[in-house]
From TrEMBL:
GO MF entry, a single one: transposase activity
Domain of life: Bacteria
Organism: Parabacteroides distasonis
Family annotation (InterPro entries): RNaseH-like_sf, Transposase_11
GO biological process, one term: DNA transposition
Domain Transposase IS4-like: residue ranges: 180-352
UniProt name for this protein: Transposase
Pfam families associated with the record: DDE_Tnp_1 (PF01609)
Length: 408
């Protein structure tokens, strides 16, 4: 493997990503953006303006000022998702709020948000991450991130709850997301009437999970032999008892996951009192625990796809984890709203380009290994480029200072 070629391969892929999109930006800004994405991908440790300046060859002030520029990240990343997955793949859009650790009092959006890792409310920031998942490739391309306002801002300025804000966010991105797929996947928190009803009105089919104590009813089966009576016909049957399922209504099937594990599951179309609509439910029994209840608002969707889409949804959480570990999602050196938005989306886009290069050119490498080789390639090219300088005292002092910075 040619270590020096990795940096060139990354730059080439990054240029091709922006050439294949219709996002308008000046050539000067595009060159800077490609340099910044490459720098984010190779920096070891934290990614902030100081370290971007050290490895990117531009001043920290240049990076800070350009971070206020508006970029249509969603369009760029949708182009990468279409190139990665192809039209024949079963795709869905996944959404997932994520806690971002951040100190300070003047940072935009600072507040108390739920942290899934700590399993408690913590002070910091929250972003709504949006990704495209594929059943066949079992991976996720991050489409973008939008920062959530804190609860005080929502209540005082917008008179809305956090769930209302999530609905408004999906509505603002609906046109772009529907161009990719009409299936939306989210976790149990979003399985509420206020959210599900709104996204269905936008044109999505929703896939999610219900709590084990959800109130579901079988649909009434018409009895042709029963005598005719006055009044409305019965619409629903008995409540679904998950400890004693009515197997005359449910259909059993064997679900095999990507690891080859097989589970006998049961499916039927039932009525959800909370969602106020008929849904297709898939019951997956768990030994010595409550069953897992997956559902789709599309009653004609195959049961295997319902389980597959929801379980593949976890790939977006892996994308968030990788962005925090490798592309500086959680190490922003700013408190400005526009710069924070730029930093969050830059982190996801840099991660997407890394995975794209790995997928096409270096399939045997992990993201951590690829990032390490990126840094080694940068270090080697920097040393080689400085070796040809004339032995002038001031030039040697600059070279020593430059190499000392790299070693810091």
């Amino acid at each position: 493997m040619n270590v020096l070629a990795i940096l060139k391969d990354f730059t080439f892929r990054c240029k091709s990503v922006f050439e294949n999109t219709t996002t308008k930006m000046s050539k000067r800004f595009l060159n800077w953006l490609i340099l910044t994405i490459r720098t984010v991908a190779l920096i070891p440790g934290k990614v902030n303006f100081t370290r971007l300046s050290r490895y990117g060859g531009r001043t920290a002030k240049t990076f800070a000022s350009n971070f206020k520029t508006s970029v249509d990240w969603m369009k760029v990343n949708i182009g990468m998702a279409q190139d990665c997955f192809g039209p024949a793949d079963d795709m869905a859009v996944a959404i997932d709020p994520s806690f971002i650790s951040k100190a300070g009092r003047l940072t935009y959006g600072i507040g108390r948000f739920w942290s899934g890792v700590a399993q408690r409310v913590k002070r910091g920031l929250e972003i709504m991450a949006i990704g495209a998942i594929s059943l066949s490739k079992h991976t996720c391309v991050m489409l973008g991130a939008v920062q959530s306002p804190n609860f005080k801002t929502l209540e005082s300025e917008k008179q809305m709850s956090m769930l209302d804000w999530y609905v408004a966010l999906v509505r603002s991105k609906a046109t772009e997301l529907l161009s990719l797929t009409d299936i939306l996947v989210a976790d149990t928190f979003f399985s509420k009437y206020e959210f599900v009803n709104e996204v269905i009105g936008m044109g999505f089919r929703f896939v999610g999970r219900l709590r084990a104590n959800s109130y579901l009813r079988y649909l009434a089966i018409p009895d042709s032999s029963a005598p005719r009576r006055r009044g409305r016909k019965k619409k629903y049957g008995e409540k679904v008892d998950f400890s004693n399922l009515d197997m005359s209504v449910l259909t059993s099937f064997i679900y095999e996951d990507s690891k080859g594990n097989k589970t006998r599951c049961h499916t039927a179309v039932v009525h959800s009192r909370a969602l106020k609509r008929d849904i297709r439910i898939v019951v997956c029994p768990v030994e010595n625990a409550e069953p897992l209840l997956y559902f789709s608002t599309d009653t004609d969707m195959r049961s295997e796809k319902i389980i597959g889409f929801y379980r593949t949804r976890f790939q977006i959480e892996f994308g968030i984890r990788d962005a925090k570990q490798f592309t500086g999602l959680q190490s922003q050196q700013t408190r400005d709203r526009e710069r924070l938005d730029f930093a969050f989306n830059l982190s996801f886009t840099a991660l997407n380009v890394c995975k794209e290069v790995i997928r096409k050119d270096y399939p045997d490498l992990s993201v951590a290994q690829f990032k390490r080789l990126m840094f080694e390639s940068y270090l080697a090219s920097t040393i080689i480029s400085t070796c040809g300088k004339s032995p002038h005292l001031k030039i040697i002092q600059k070279i020593n200072h430059r190499l000392a910075q790299l070693a810091a």
